[in-house]
Amino acid sequence: MAQLKITLRRSVAHRIPEQRKVVKELGLGRVSSSVVKPDNAATRGAIVKIAHLVSVEVVEG
User: Which of 6, 8, 15, 51 could form a disulfide with 19 if both were Cys (CB 3.0 to 4.6 A apart)?
Assistant: First the structure.
């Protein structure tokens, strides 16, 4: 099953609270922090909400 590596590229300072909450729930803290999450609908939906703040790579695993 494929996984997604999500990296926070832009700060969440001065962003709306919903976007800050999504970033925190994904496990991202500081700029340049990364997490690996399963490629499923829930993860994709969270990424769509903060697409302008993150970069995403597909990791085969």
Answer: 15
Q: How many domains does the chain have?
A: 1
pLDDT in tens, 41-60: 999 999 999 999 999 999 98
DSSP 4: E
What is the distance of C-alpha 37 from the center of its chain? 9
**Tokens at residue 47, please?**
């990424």
**Residue 1: band (very low, low, confident or very high) from pLDDT cuts 50, 70, 90:** confident
Q: Look up the domain containing 39 and give its range.
A: 3-59
